[in-house]
Design goal:
This is Glutamyl-tRNA(Gln) amidotransferase subunit E. GO terms for molecular function: carbon-nitrogen ligase activity, with glutamine as amido-N-donor; transferase activity. Keywords: Transferase. Pfam families: YqeY. With 145 residues, the protein is an all-alpha fold. It has two domains: 1-86, Hypothetical Protein Yqey, Chain: A, domain1, CATH 1.10.1510; 94-144, Arc Repressor Mutant, subunit A. It has helices spanning 2-14, 18-38, 44-67, 71-85, 94-108, 116-127, 133-144. Helix 2 crosses helix 4 (71-85) and helix 5 (94-108) crosses helix 7. The radius of gyration is 18 Å and the shape is globular. The relative contact order is 0.10.
C-alpha cells in the first residue's frame, strides 16, 4: 500500500493535482509517524487504520467548516476524503455488517446491552479497515436492545 501511495504521489505531482498530492503527502507523513511510534514498518491493515483515522479527522473538520459557512474548505475536505477512500479496502454494506455483528453476538453469547464491550472486542478485528467502528457500535446497540 505504501508503494502505491508513493507512486500515486509521483503521478499527482506530474499531473499538477494539488489536492491529491497534498492529501497523499499528509497520509504518508501520518504513516511515517505511526511507524516511528510503533518502531516497525506498518502492515497494510495498520496503514488502513491510519487512513481511516485521517478520514475521521476530516469528517469532523467538515462538520465544523459547514457550520462556519466555509464552502471552499468543505469542498476541499470532501475531495481529500474521496482521495483517501480510494486506498481503503472495499467497505462492508449495511447488510453484510449486520450479518457479521449478529454472528459475533451469537459467538460471544451476548444477551443484553451490558455486553456491548464484549461484542465490540470480538467484532473489531473482523471488520477493521472495512467498516466504521462508530457505525458498528450503533448497530450492536440496536441489535442488543
Amino acid at each position: 500500500m505504501k508503494a502505491r501511495l508513493q507512486q500515486d504521489m509521483k503521478e499527482a505531482l506530474k499531473s499538477h493535482d494539488k489536492i491529491r498530492l497534498q492529501t497523499i503527502r499528509m497520509v504518508l507523513a501520518s504513516i511515517k509517524n505511526a511507524e516511528i511510534e510503533k518502531m516497525h514498518p506498518l502492515s497494510n491493515e495498520e496503514m488502513a487504520t491510519v487512513i481511516q483515522r485521517e478520514i475521521k479527522m476530516r469528517k469532523e473538520a467538515l462538520e465544523q467548516f459547514a457550520r462556519g459557512g466555509r464552502e471552499d474548505l468543505v469542498r476541499q475536505t470532501e475531495a481529500e476524503i474521496k482521495v483517501l477512500e480510494d486506498y481503503l479496502p472495499q467497505q462492508l454494506s449495511d447488510s453484510e455488517l449486520r450479518d457479521i455483528i449478529q454472528q459475533t453476538i451469537s459467538e460471544v453469547g451476548a444477551q443484553s446491552s451490558k455486553e456491548i464491550g464484549k461484542v465490540m472486542a470480538a467484532l473489531m478485528p473482523k471488520i477493521r479497515g472495512r467498516a466504521d467502528g462508530k457505525k458498528a457500535n450503533e448497530m450492536v446497540r440496536q441489535l442488543l436492545a
